[in-house]
Write a structure and sequence with these properties.
Helices cover 38% and strands 25% of the residues. It is an alpha/beta fold. The chain folds into two domains: 217 residues, FAD/NAD(P)-binding domain (3-Layer(bba) Sandwich), CATH 3.50.50; 150 residues, D-Amino Acid Oxidase, Chain A, domain 2 (2-Layer Sandwich), CATH 3.30.9. α1 links the parallel β1 and β2. α1 packs parallel to α4. Bound molecules: flavin-adenine dinucleotide. The site of flavin-adenine dinucleotide has 34 residues, from α1, β3, β12 and α10.
Length: 404
Amino acid sequence: MTDTVRHGRALVVGLGIAGIATALRLREVGWEPVLVEQAPARRSSGYFIMLFGTGIASARRLGVLEAIGDRRSPQLTTYEVNRAGRRSPGMSPADLPGKPRLVVRGDIEQALFSALPDDVEIRYSTVPTRITQDDSAATVTLHDTASGAVVTERFDLVVGADGMRSTVRELVFGSQNHLHPLNYMIGATVLKESIEGFTQDEGLVLAEPGRSAWIFSFRDHTPGLLFSYRTDDTDAEFARPPIESIRAAFGPQPPGPLLERLFTAFEQAPDFLFDSVHQVRMPRWHRGRIVLIGDAAWCVTLYAGMGASSGIAGGELLGTMLQRHPGDLSGALRAWEDRMRPFIHTEQKSALVMRRLLTPHDRKEQIMRSVMVRLMHAPVIGPAIGKMVNGPDMNNKQLDIAAA
Ligand SMILES: Cc1cc2nc3c(=O)[nH]c(=O)nc-3n(C[C@H](O)[C@H](O)[C@H](O)COP(=O)(O)OP(=O)(O)OC[C@H]3O[C@@H](n4cnc5c(N)ncnc54)[C@H](O)[C@@H]3O)c2cc1C
């Protein structure tokens, strides 16, 4: 591909963490980003997010770390509970080595969005329907779903930051086998108030074979609720109302008062996410002038706790590589992908290990998990056990992958 573009015009599809971070950085290095988002407006709030060292380093350089903040309570206590309400000392992923920041997704999106210069063009209710490319540009057909208008425009670069079920991926890379199901479902929301019997600083984990329920507490925000469970048939999970699927997954035993409270809280939440868990695995994330980023490219899943961090870092690094390879788009995208790929590979492996901590697959994993949690609370050996269990993967989460 011949390319004389130095500072071009880039279409960024998707106004999530990866898309906004990318647009912000592209603009910083002199590109002209145009953002399109399928929703009619920017979403807010979202679910519990841990921001590890990788994301923190990039957010700091992008000038948004302070605005993202940290909702970790200094008094944060997490309990392992059972259906009868019995409690023992527990462990939240937030207690993992590296002490991630605890926020809600909206904190990160809002901070990045506020940092975007006012003149960055954003078109809501807009989706790409066709993408082609030649030596000099990518040609994208954009459909405004609110007005029905269709336009075709040329861009020097197209960034697909449109999430796990990416349309850009499908239009450019085809629909074959990029989504790898983990055979788990999640239901996540932010609650209106703390769960009865627990203070604002207290979180809980109810982990049983093939299913778990979590309350993540914050210093200055109502708690996050997460259900995660194993399934052999994701289609069946979507075939009925989410709360019915969640209740069925925790059956047939009676829920008991605590779990019932969690079900009711989920049912009453005005806004929630209910979805199947997949990793996106692709041999390449770019083709010509089109590049995928964030969940669209590599969805590591919530179990890795690194989707937000890798989205911010990936966006920052993309801008850095474009700056470092002026007039050489292919070289910039290659250099970007070469740096990101081993890092993401480790996170995708890490997700499969961390999933056991969040939701044990079966009775054996449940026993291993509870032994581990107990040992991690043991005096003296506890911290060493924590490091041993999470060692190399935890180091990856602190890696400043986008460092210049
Ligand atoms: C319950 C839960 C907990 C999590 N916890 C953590 C955590 O602790 N730490 C962490 O780092 N990560 C966590 N993650 C993962 C993290 O939230 C995601 O990896 C990250 O938000 C993905 O951002 P993204 O911008 O790549 O994609 P998305 O957030 O999916 O954003 C994609 C955007 O593109 C838009 N879009 C989609 N299709 C189109 C289209 N055709 N045209 C235009 N726009 C389109 C969407 O509306 C959306 O705005 C968690 C995820 C979940 C579900």
